[in-house]
What we know:
Order of helices and strands: HHHHHH
Structural class: mainly alpha
Radius of gyration: 16 Å
Strand content: under 5%
Number of strands: 0
Bound molecules: zinc ion
Helix content: 55-70%
Distance between the termini: 6 Å
Amino acid sequence: MPGYNAxxxxxxxxxxxxxxxxxxxxxxxxxxxxxxxGFYIGTDFLTPDLDTESTAIKRWGRLKILFLPYKWAFxxxxxxxxxxYGAVVRILYISIIMLxxxxxxxxxxxxxxxxxxxxxxxFLIGIVIANALHVLxxxxx
Length: 141
Ligand SMILES: [Zn+2]
């Protein structure tokens, strides 16, 4: 099973090709930045290996406690490693936590329009691609 750094190297090498292709397809620099940030978060923090005591979960420091329910709910390398909905479930999971914190801080929810901006969508696509590459590499080894 590839370790944390093997996943990172694999993901970033592939991402160079994705970024080159995106630029070739005339994505603008701000959109590429949104995609890149999502990809970084998806590779280094919001990985499928949050379902086990992995390097990825240790990188969350004390905040790793947020993922205890996630670890209990998802057995290692089962549905968390589904190439289609694994990332979607993780994005929903962290979004609910962030919405809760937002509500606690501001006593209201953010406007729904925020979630449909092109940048947020590219950011989420970055996470989904990073997670898919993780699952593919796990599948090879
Ligand atoms: Zn994995």
